[in-house]
Amino acid sequence: MSALRRFARSPEGVVGFVILLTLASVALLAPVLFPGDPLRIAGAPLIPPFTDPSFPLGTDRLGRDVLAGLVHGARASLIVGIAAALVAVLIGSIVGTLAGFAGGLIDEALMRVVDAFQIVPGFLLALAFVSVLQPSLPIVILAIALGAWTGPARLARAEVLSIRERDYVASARIIGMHPLEIALREVLPNALPPVLALSAVIVAGAVLTEAALSFLGLGDPNIVTWGSMIAEGRAVLRSAPYLSIIPGLALVATVVGTYLFGEGLTAMLSRREQHS
Amino acid sequence: MTALLKLEGYTLTYPRQTEPALIDISLELAAGEKLAVIGESGSGKSTLARAVACLNPRGTCESGTISWPSLGRSAQAGSDFGMVFQDPGSNLNPVLRIGEQVAEAAREHLDLSWKEAEAVALDLLKKVQIPQPEAALRAYPHQFSGGQRQRIAIAAAIAARPRLLIADEATSALDTLVQAEIVRLIETLVTTEKMTLMFITHDIALASQLADRIAVMHRGRLVEIGPAEEIVANPRDPYTRHLLDTHIDLDDAPRISGGAA
């Protein structure tokens, strides 16, 4: 309860939360708001926005409803963003915790793997991964997580290095808990808060990476994504710029919303520290 | 009667250190005995406690032996020894419920289900006199005071009914009233549960009041060990005498006199 109140005290966090909530509800309600395939041809091609009441945001050059695409695209963007961040935080925090807790050779080995992933640009890694395998939603999620798990890993390890010296970890050793159990049950939950604060930034990055992959034609071809809509509009950029601008604005809103939400989370966590 | 714990010529050097932290320690601890280890900061008291509890950092250089003659095997953490630490702020995990932390050792060693272990935990919390033990099971460490946390830590340490309880400056961070309560609690528990106690402290008065025997440490060496009354009344080693002399009691004559007159 008090956590909610602490969060509510940061205005940026509340704004971010409202934006994300709107996006999430739109994404969840997409099949109700716009039933049927958003990729089907619904009307005349290239209707400009705000001219035809049945197509408020107009149609693209094949006559597909832009608003329907936008709403259905929110699903892909949010799913990919959140799932990729989840996978990245999960892998990262486990690897970081094990490295920090085990120390010695295991630490060195795991952190060199982290280094190896970190020196390759995340987008390039995702691009290579998707072009080798089939571009489907799970593969895209995995590809993005592959470039994003190193941040959480480093952060978790740094936290664990200080946590493993605390007395309650020694107590856990003394009552005879298995080291792996100590690492995952006693240490990992205490190392999580800063990693979770970072996860909002990862979500924002993942949404952008997914859009970029779709823009290059490496997204899942069977679903609408904002990236593929921008790419679609590129061909008629001079005559109908709105086709690229509208999904671009949606992207901006999502990224800004996630980022503000992350700021709110960070503020909440730091307030807890001041409090205790 | 064979000793519970026996150290023979035990020497320990921390990693990347040239000076050993413990030098040639030999002592025996009989079952049911209460031993106080005293000495100034840096004398090696805590190192000794941690060495007995197998908590040496990686890369520590050891020689000599620590054995458990009455067990006839190496000691198992939790069921053979338990430990209470100094800092009540960090000896409990902030994100786990009290019930979980106290039940953990019981579940691990007594082969109980979570439900049974929780009953054991409730029993232990009553034993260490935590108010509203049922509610405490579901509470988190930050909801308790330092003294209460230390009681909970004691409950967690004795959950698997260890033979030896090691208290590493367990009362040093508490005020004198709470300290007296905790000492009384440890004393009662050790007597009723028939445990052996190794009590690390820098407070010689506390040591003489609680322990059967006192061991005096100085710069990593065990300089003197003997029955508590004898050490206090008739110290043989000059360092022990020095420690006793520097101890200030309320009965002592005032050291600053006539200043205000």
Automatic annotation (TrEMBL), chain A:
It is a multi-pass membrane protein. Pfam families: BPD_transp_1 (PF00528), OppC_N (PF12911). It comes from the Bacteria. The keyword Transport applies. InterPro entries: BP-dependent_transpt_permease, MetI-like, MetI-like_sf, OppC_N. Residues 74-262 form the ABC transmembrane type-1 domain. The chain crosses the membrane at residues 12-34, 78-101, 195-219, 239-262. Keywords: Cell membrane, Membrane, Peptide transport, Protein transport, Transmembrane, Transmembrane helix, Transport. It is found in: Cell membrane. Belongs to the binding-protein-dependent transport system permease family. This is ABC transporter permease.
UniProtKB/TrEMBL annotation, chain B:
Its EC number is 7.2.2.11. Residues 5-244 form the ABC transporter domain. PROSITE patterns: ABC_TRANSPORTER_1, ABC_TRANSPORTER_2. This is Nickel import system ATP-binding protein NikD. Keywords: ATP-binding, Cell membrane, Ion transport, Membrane, Nucleotide-binding, Translocase, Transport. GO terms for molecular function: ATP binding. PANTHER family: NICKEL ABC TRANSPORTER, ATP-BINDING PROTEIN (PTHR43297:SF13), OLIGOPEPTIDE TRANSPORT ATP-BINDING PROTEIN APPD (PTHR43297). The complex is composed of two ATP-binding proteins (NikD and NikE), two transmembrane proteins (NikB and NikC) and a solute-binding protein (NikA). Coiled coil: none annotated. Belongs to the ABC transporter superfamily. Its main location: membrane.
